[in-house]
Write a structure and sequence with these properties.
The structure is a homotrimer. The first copy, chain A, folds into three domains: about 90 residues, Udp-n-acetylmuramoylalanyl-d-glutamate--2,6- Diaminopimelate Ligase, Chain: A, domain 1; about 200 residues, UDP N-Acetylglucosamine Acyltransferase, domain 1 (3 Solenoid), CATH 2.160.10; about 30 residues. Chain A has five helices and 40 strands. Chains in contact: A-B, A-C, B-C. The interface between B and C is large, with 73 and 73 residues. β39 of chain A pairs antiparallel with β40 of chain B.
Chain lengths: ~325, ~325, ~325
């Protein structure tokens, strides 16, 4: 894929500072770029890298253009504009319509003629695969699941049952959607399984990371709204609801019926108890644990940074006897009066 | 599936307060129920929802029956009774005996005629698949593994080698049982792998969540006793032993040779070091870290709840200089005497 | 496999204290060994177990030989020597060259004649499978991936795209390598995906645990150097680099562009933010969170051990009002002068 800077400027609404005939054939970082590549500057701290880049062009804000040693596409949001151009220059592999001879499609399933079903994939009863959708090798689409137009299930993904996925979604390998929620009632004979009969609904333009798991609802559905971005190895329990455009980094987990607002950010290894509500625009820092509802946007944290173990162990010992300190101060205050 | 309230009362040993001919065709929550559905009340706080429900019947304790606007099945443990009835009304999909043409079964494996082997499944050398057992699409049963009667391996599960699973177990998609334990000996040439030659034994009535991993033992077996419930993305290292009826929520992990008692509860993202023993009836709260043996039943915790970052950062800064506080108080006490 | 002690002594460079004709047919722990088995003593605390063992021979240091009730192989590093002998007595299953009839290999892929491709495996465009390499049932090797000589991908592993694996590597079931990094640019229309066009490079003699995920680089590669050992359910974000012979226990995660040195040890459930550098020989304890670069070898920690909840909750309450303590001490000091 080759495209001229002039064409890119028109398509992405940028002013161009440079030769419109310059051909671009890919993207790269400022430091690794070679001629023919497009790079970007979003963080002014990287201006020294900008000055030294060998890229043929960069996307940046107008005020940073003076430092570019090459052509520049001017954009208010250089990172987003760069991402859009990068998508054009490095598109996902094309979908090759058809069902591979080594795939198995149940007779009651409906696969549109423009969809691609790869070798070793299995499409179950009453499943529906949309236009231009892709099902990768070894992926399993269980009964009554729906995959929207232009959505992709990569290799070894499993949709268990009653999972409805919107359009233009991307589900990475090994992810499991629609597994039973963790519902058990204690009895004199041990745990009794509570049947999990709800489904999973995934909005449009959602991306779900490798080996992430999203359980079905116990009675209603587990819901991931449009535009949500989920990283690898995350867990979503039954009846969780994640608001539109929220982004969730790796190894984060949500217990049952946690309701999360729109445009929230969860850093890695964070988590939330169940049956709480988190408002829009909350940001949870790494390893953070949410134990009650959040009603105000802002940043929330609950973890300590690592220190040399000797220092940390002393800190822990001090924290553990902090109650003695309260008592001693109280005694001092008594004498002080 | 439709069944009368009178029949349910007889089968589940409940007193019935209402018309025994009322037909029930499914279960629902109090708030979402429509006529024909059965719901339940276990937590008296939800009495307002009970009063407003449109369900045809509810399972509840005798003392709560006065608030039911519909028929009532009276039970000492309404949640467990509801779960049992829900299982009857919403049974798992039936097992269709036979080996799919697109499955591969090794010539030395034994698959009982009543078992179902799905498309894309692989049954390896000397594996044994019990009566009415189910092996889902893409699931792999490695050499010398045994799957007990009525047990189910869902899609893309892997039993690596020497994994013995009891009866009526349910293993969710992507789970891996029998992977090598993490055993390495440091040498001058780097790590030397310690062969992991033990197996995995899973008792009857165990449920294991999606993408959970259970390693084989180094020499003996890794053991999960009967009735244990394990959620998604949990990790069990070599030679761990989990006692009967313990329940373990998502993303929890156990290091090698950790021995856990019966009826313990582990909340999400908790973990335990290896080579320790946890007694029966211990409860570990979310993100809790067990660093030494627990000998007394009860609740154990070690994590902080999230706070607004500004407040939290001040707290962290204060904790880090807590030693200065001890010194200052000591100095004050010296002067005080 | 049976081998004489005399032969083992010669092959592994040990002095032998006992009958060289003693036949050894396997390894075992000190407590579970029966005649014919070889065990080892590395930790002198287990000397009572050594004295009571029924093993035919043990590997141990010369100074511990006096306590052995059986033959002894003397070694400076008994655990590593035992591991090497155990590998010989319990070798991995042999590779049976050939492509199973139920495997699918793309016409542009290259599979060496000595490699084994199992049932249900898929080898994609331009992929290369090395000499004596093994691809397990249901494993997927995507476009432009390379698997080195003698390396093994176990069941249901996925190599997504542009993943290069060295020689003698072992990748456990369900692991995903080469999934897209988590790169998103916020725009007025929500997240814009930043295409992830880098690859993954895995050095020789690397072991990767079950259901672990390693993302491709955004532009350059994500790199795992030779001899690294990774446990189950770990996460490696885009452009992470892990130095040679580092070992990483289960459920640990690294955010984007984290650079980790050689011979580091990460205990379970630990994690690191991105864009930092950790020097060689750093040790991170369980649940530890690294938030900034580490420049000195040593042990680092940041988590609290669990305590009875009542005690812990009081501790948390005290920590949360620690600022009041600082104020009170300040007031006392003021009066004290």
């Amino acid at each position: 894929m080759r495209i001229s800077l002039g064409e890119l400027a028109i398509r992405y609404g940028c002013d161009l500072d440079g030769d419109p005939d310059t051909a671009i054939d890919g993207v790269s970082s400022l430091t690794e770029a070679i001629p023919g590549k497009l790079s970007f500057l979003a963080n002014p701290k990287l201006t020294p890298q900008l000055k030294a880049t060998r890229a043929s062009a960069v996307v940046l804000r107008a005020e940073d253009a003076q430092h570019a040693p090459c052509a520049a596409l001017l954009a208010d949001n250089p990172y987003a504009t760069f991402a859009r151009i990068a998508q054009e220059l490095h598109p996902p592999p094309p979908v090759s319509p058809g069902i591979h001879a080594a795939a198995v499609v149940h007779e009651t399933a409906h696969v549109t003629p423009t969809a691609e079903i790869s070798a070793g994939a299995y499409i179950g009863e009453r499943a529906v695969i949309g236009e231009h959708a892709y099902v990768g090798p070894g992926a399993v689409v269980g009964p009554a699941c729906r995959l929207g137009d232009h959505s992709r299930l990569l290799a070894n993904v499993t949709l268990v049952r009653a999972v409805a996925i919107g359009q233009r979604c991307l589900i990475h390998p090994g992810a499991v959607l629609g597994s039973d929620g963790f519902g058990n009632a204690m009895s004199e004979d041990g745990w009794v399984k509570v049947p999990q009969i709800g489904g999973v609904r995934i909005g449009d333009d959602v991306e779900i990371g490798a080996n992430t798991t999203i359980d079905c609802g116990t009675l209603g559905d587990t819901i991931i709204e449009e535009g949500v971005r989920i990283d690898n190895l995350c867990h979503f329990a039954h009846n969780v609801r994640i608001g539109a455009h929220t982004a969730i980094a790796a190894q984060t987990g949500f217990a049952g019926s946690a309701i999360v607002g729109k445009r929230c950010l969860f850093a890695g290894q964070s988590g939330s108890v169940g049956h709480i509500t988190i408002c829009d625009d909350a940001i949870i820092s790494g390893k953070g644990m949410i134990t009650k509802s959040i009603t105000k946007p802002g940043v929330y944290a609950s973890s300590f940074p690592s220190e040399p173990a000797k220092k940390w162990n002393r800190l822990v010992a001090n924290v553990r006897r902090i109650d003695t300190l309260f008592e001693r101060v109280k005694a001092l205050e008594k004498n002080d009066t």
